[in-house]
Amino acid sequence: MGTKFDLSQILEDLENTSTLEELAAVLVQLRDQLQIDHITYHWVDGAGDQYGFTTYPDAWDKQYRDKNYHRIDPVILGCFQRFHAVDWKQLNWSGKAVRSFLQDAQEHGVGNQGYSIPLRGPSGQFALFTVNNTCDDAGWQAFIDTHGRDLILVAHFLNRKALEFAKNRQPETTRGLSPREIDAMTLLALGYSRAQVAHSLSISEHTLRAYIESARSKLGAQNTTHAIATALSRGLIVV
Q: What pTM did the predictor assign?
């Protein structure tokens, strides 16, 4: 892996781009300077629509989309709940479906190490910037220690530029959650069980279920966990 790259030049090159294709070319240049396997900018909106660019093999990109892997990908799900960069080793890779996903990814050439940076836009947009490689843990940690801060800066600069070029992809304004829906989602985000939430709000679990399903529908979420993460990322609830 590379020991350094010209941060100021990369930022200048990003600033001079005018299309997503040009952004992708700059990232390929960055990947080559860093001497890593892959680099990705990946958008998943509340409705599950995706776009971006990646240096992963086309076969894996197609497989990921065809199988809707974003619904179980620990990187996507874990970063929905975080605002800081995440080393893949910090994520939960247990569970039969996730292990099968990981095996499929590695068979398609996805490296065993990754570093993902969650990114959010002014209208609730969510994206990830990821660098990925195959190496041992010690080598990867040294790489992150050296380049982590600069990669975060690149990621946020990239995201700002990408949003300029993709305004037609920005999600519609989310319908506001009702006070009861906010209360329910906040308590769930704090780790309360459904029974505890219902007791705290002095409502039945049946009524609670209706609030949760209404909030999930408004947020365009696939499930309750996705709804909580989306509400957090859009500032609709605070914990």
A: 0.68
